[in-house]
Small multidrug efflux protein (Cellulomonas dongxiuzhuiae), 189 residues
Amino acid sequence: MTPLQELIVRFQELVAQVPEFFQPFIVMLAGAIPFVEGELGAMVGIVGGLNPVVAAVAAAAGNFLSVALVMAFTGRARTAVVDRTRVKATVGGPATSDVHAVDGFAEPAPAQPMSKGRQRVITWLNRFGVPGASILGPFAIPTQFTAAVLVASGSPRRWVLLWQAVAIVLWTTVTTVTISLALTHVVGV
């Protein structure tokens, strides 16, 4: 037995000590963590011995729920900021250099420079729209952050949520199939 096979078998023995009912919930929690997401969450579940379909569904569900929560908070924060800025602009608030007009209303200028990942997502949003930015977003930043950037930029929440769901299902499925085939045909576990 190779060291990799031995490591996987020991990990499966460790996972087997957890009741079967709770194993998908652990994978779901793993999928909710940024940078782990559905892809790595499903991988952990599969390597741990879960059925690949159960692992993929649990990880994708956890990732989707966390994205939905982030979007709800981001959407409310954006609405509050935009409404507050509109009131200041119409009442005759200060016309300082830290406020600029976008789409007919004033928005505060960003306090700090954007990260490279956020810049990529904004570029993809401008070039490919919400569908392209959602599907390509995981290459730059986690889906939770991608969703927050898209909602904060003014994209419709339902549209972002739909395309984030498509991206989560797509990438979790690709990862699940790849890791299942690799474990079966390459590692031999």
About this structure: Residues 43 and 188 are 16 Å apart (CA to CA). Residues 3-187 form one domain.
